[in-house]
Amino acid sequence: MAIRNYLPPLPAFLFSTLVVGGLAAKTLHIGLHFSSLPFLYLVLYSPTLILPDLLIIFFVRILLQFPAPETRLQWVSTCLGGVLSLLTWGASSIQFGFFMQTGAEVAWSASNSFLSDPAAMKILLSGISTVSAAGTALGLIAWLIHAYLYTLTGLALQGVRDLFLGTYKARYTLLSAPNKSWMASVDLRSARRVALITAALVSLLFLELSRPSIPYDHLSGALPLTLLDAFHHKTSTAEGCRNPAKPFPLYDPGEQSSLADGWSRPAWLPQVAPSGFSRWDKDPAQRAEEDNPSYFICDGGADGFFNPKADPLKISNLGDDIYEPLQKAFNEHSVQIDNVILVTLESGRKEMFPMQQGTPMFDGLLASHQESKRDEATDRLVTMTPIAQMLTGEYVSDSKGERVNLTAAKWQDPAEEGMGGLNVRGALTGSSLTFKSILGSHCGVHPLPVDLLEESLLEIYQPCLPQLFELFNQVKSPKSPVPIESRSNTSSSTPPSIDSLKKPWKSVFMQSITDDYDRQNILDDNMGFKHKVVKETITSPHAKYHAQGEEINYFGYAETELKPYVRDLFYEAANNNTRIFLSHVTSTTHHPWKTPRRWQKEDYMGAVGNINHDLMNSYLNTARFVDEWLGDIMNLLEETGIANSTLVVIVGDHGQAFGEDNKDMTGTYENGHISNFRVPLVFRHPHMPRINIDANATSLSIIPTILDMLVQSNSLDTRDSEIASSILPEYQGQSLIRPFVSSVKEGSHHDGKVENPDDNAKRAPHKHHDRPHTRYAWNFGLINAGGSMISVTAAGLPYRLVLPLREGFEYGFSHLDKDPGELHPIKAWTMGSLLKEVESDYDEEASEWLEEAEQVAKWWVNNQIRIWGYREA
């Protein structure tokens, strides 16, 4: 009989979308991890991976079995089956659309946060075209096979029913033995089928119980059941007491000081402690009884807040000498810092700041061109970021080996040869999620290792830069003594009768996009910004300068819309007795990498290779646009006359991976590739000598470096200088005006207790592998969205670990000296497997480091949750 679907087409089509969507999603899910799975194990356990999908398929087929809903039960059954089918079809379309955009999987556990955020919804909608294409393709396949699929599964279910319920009657009673006539009536083929099916079920059950939970539990997840993860909503709270600190795993840090030891309220703290300084406010014991138990652990009294004296990871270089050229400039009072500008470059990769030959990225870009055209491509690429060349002092060469001519750039560096400030080569971000990264640069803190910006609901455990400058304002006194010699190089823009050291600080945050995304506006307030210019400012009917151009992405406008606001702020600093701290975040280099229509784009990419280079070309153009914008900022400093008294700090929030870097995954989301972590870090001042610093520092060093510069350059009055000097050792990062310390032996003065050197005597030496333990400057980088994986490195060593924090993610190891572009990282599902491969491919030293890195990282994750006072509800 020809198979013909005599049923109404809708139930059959819905069922087919569930089968096609569910199995396609499962194939993609397994395929993304195929390279890290032992082939024989994958073959052996593959039946258990597909079992949940088959159970769902047959369950929904039963729900949709009725020809036409006639009773209430039939209506309910059909509707439920239809809903499950549509959910599976939609979710599978989203997974394929997301994969086509990024090469990664959707984390349904984070989707709830996106769906509740209007700005985040624009990100999701930006990929609607690929999702629609995937949904259309899946729907077309489902329509083509829906009749056959529906009928065949129905026949299969009927066969199973008949097989187990029986189609014959046994001629056997308890009172008589079976006879030949009964034996003849037995359907031997049916019996064999029952036996085979029973054996298969028993084998399947055995495989299910015996298989390793990692990674096969994760791989067996099936739509639509995995969508339930979206309803697991996390909330954070700072109420109640905190968990006690866990012992540090590698060595005994010795007797640790608590906050209560020798506590006294600082004389510089105002009567009412400003925001960010609450842990200096009261005796910890008194605070435990009176105000906020969240600073204390649950066993009754010991402090649970961040305590730098008890931090086993802290390495301090404050006892070391300042770089000699810098010290000379400070002694001669030639460095004046009245204003601080902190520019955060969205998706700012170090390889593009400036663009230069000799990096894995540059080699990848050239590979897109035919060999005969690579010299021409080289000359076009190396002239892409001229402002970055002048800001960093990294002047690059063209295809002929000659220094690039920068005379056509929008801004020309007026600094003398050999002057310009600090350029850090080797800096890494603390997170590939923008505002988790900004917590490091603006507040000197590590972010919270959970998804998205939960920190916005908690008290930041260190004072942020706006809060520090506001403290200087609050303690300012007209009678504060001012060292006369520190004003020997007063900027010509400052009236001689006004001493800039007595001016109040004004902290302003500017970006040309919305600050509503993921609670950024709340975080801005928590960091202490009282003045903001954002998208809502420049589009308000009352805007002083209304946005003139078009919106270039789903967040807002190009940076150039801020130009009149920046100019006004700089003139205010020059003429109105104000010292400014400006925090500015760029955004044009964010996906979808669009520039204003009237801005002329260039073709940087060729057509060679098996990937489309359009996205990379758009990104390169946005990088050139932002480079020109930095030139505008530097010109405004010159125009307003405050360039010689302004420190400009430039840092990338994170990098941005493309197919030219990593063919498997692009973007930052759940992508641990090294291209997402290398960022520029520059401290620009025209009267500071140019110093290149090769150090694996992070943005945690920004606040210590700024405070150290302000103190050493006599750019603070006596009172403010005392405060800055007192607070400086509290931060976890090192000052970069002194040599960066990558590692120390136990008992060294670099252990973070410079102010209490006698404490070193209390430290007990510890042996690891029969040698004195070396303490490294560990760097941790959260991988977007923050709670799935972290990147672990140790300054001065070439090793890198990507550590999963929850099920479904792989361990990764790379040796950055031998594989700087991370083209061939080692991946494994367990640490044991990874250790074996690393020791086999490299050496025992690498595997020993890997063991330490895992222990330290797991301790760090728990400790960060403790000191942030975070709990899931």
How would you explain this protein's 3D organization?
The strands form four sheets. Strands 4-3-5-1-6-7-2-8 form an eight-stranded mixed sheet, with helices on both faces. Strands 13-14-15-16-17 form a five-stranded antiparallel sheet, covered by helices on one side. The chain has three domains: 9-167 and 184-231, no CATH class; 324-739, Alkaline Phosphatase, subunit A (3-Layer(aba) Sandwich); 797-873, no CATH class. The chain has 24 helices and 17 strands. It is α/β, with parallel strands linked by helices and 873 residues long. Helices cover 38% and strands 10% of the residues. Residues 1-7, 167-178, 478-498 and 753-771 have low confidence and may be disordered. 44% of the residues are buried. It holds the Pfam family Sulfatase. The chain crosses the membrane at residues 40-63, 75-99, 119-145. Residues 479-500, 746-770 are annotated as: Disordered. This is Alkaline phosphatase-like alpha/beta/alpha. Keywords: Membrane, Transmembrane, Transmembrane helix.
